[in-house]
Amino acid sequence: MQNDDAIDLRTIIGSLLDLIAYTPSNNPQIVKNSTEALEKAVDKEVQSWNVDDGHNGALFSTISKKAVTLIQFWYSHLSFEAKLAFSLYAWFFFYIDDGAGNLSHQDYQRLLLLGCPQRDPALAHYHEVLGGLYEYWDPVCANAMACAAFEFVSGTVLENRPDVTAMDIRPSAAGWPKYLRAKSGLGPAAACAVFPKQTHPDITSYIQVLPDIDEFSCLANDILSFYKEELEGETTNYVQVRSKTTLKHPKRVLVEMVREVADLHERIEATLEKQPEALAAWRAFENGFIAFHLLMKRYRLSELGFGCS
Predict the structure, then answer these.
(1) Measured between alpha carbons, how far is residue 215 from residues 75, 182, 222, 225 in Å?
(2) 28 belongs to a structural domain
């Protein structure tokens, strides 16, 4: 058997692209005017909150750019209005992720349920953004997206708690890696957002693939983020934690994950085979999702020979 240390990360990622038949020529076209209009719309909404970011608006503007870039890649097939609604959702993803461990995040859900003021003035508008999802997605999907947002806040706090990050990972805790990843992954939201109700009014045409798209987005992200996180010395990501519970080398875990992603891809394609509109939406999402990771500088995959914007 090949020595795990000798497994080439570029080969692992390349095998993923081959198994899902990723086609660079089908990358979504990020139209400059469309992107600028979406950024302006997001900035306008954020500015209406009258919240000081402490950097004369520069911090919030940077978050808006990150959110819009993600949406333009992952959801190029959505209407402008649906993109705006989910860009604001993604805005809070970056805002919370950048402030991981903030005590105001730990109190967010309790204060919301009690109807009390939020410690963080920006978070005081999170529920408004979540409520806006119902205009563009089926109520079942919008509910799942809102629940995923609450889980994300808790999961982000959890995975950054000093007592949790310092604890020994026991091999017998086989369910821990997936549990922690599900808490902080926003996978249900990423999956549901693929199918807005205006173009996909029949929820039965796609609801059976939502769990697989959820898992696909989490696993594929973890594979494509691994290189960057290794360079940053991160030891609490899904790959590393799964490595500790399975007693397998992280690269061996990555090889297994690639096969799991390929299986998910095949199942989704088969399930949507007789639903051409849903199948096209899934393919647009999958291709844009992969392109986003390969092309964005933050993932540093150009250092392994992949394209970079």
Answers:
(1) 17, 9, 11, 15
(2) no
In a domain, 33, yes or no: no
Q: Which domain holds residue 139?
A: 4-22+40-304
Q: Is residue 35 part of a domain?
A: no
Residue whose token pair is 């600028």: 36
Q: Is the pLDDT of residue 207 over 70?
A: yes
Domain count, the chain: 1
Lowest mean pLDDT: which of 7-11, 24-28, 132-136, 259-263? 24-28
Give the pLDDT score at 309.
Answer: 46
What angle is formed at CA 55 by the lines to CA 74 and CA 70, rounded to 5 degrees?
5
Identify which of 70, 90, 88, 91 has the alpha carbon closest to the alpha carbon of residue 28: 70
Q: Is residue 72 part of a domain?
A: yes
CA distance 95 to 174: 31
Give the type of residue at 133: L
- Tell me the two tokens of residue 227: 């290189």
> Which CATH number belongs to the domain containing residue 283 in this structure?
1.10.600.10
pLDDT at 186: 93
Is residue 237 within 8 Å of 225, Cβ to Cβ? Answer: yes
User: What pLDDT does residue 7 have?
Assistant: 74
Residue of 123, 78, 95, 138 whose CA lies nearest to 284: 78
Residue 75 CA to residue 194 CA, distance in Å, equals 7
Measure the CA–CA gap between 151 and 133, rounded to whole angstroms.
Answer: 17
- Cβ atoms of residues 113 and 127 within 8 Å: no
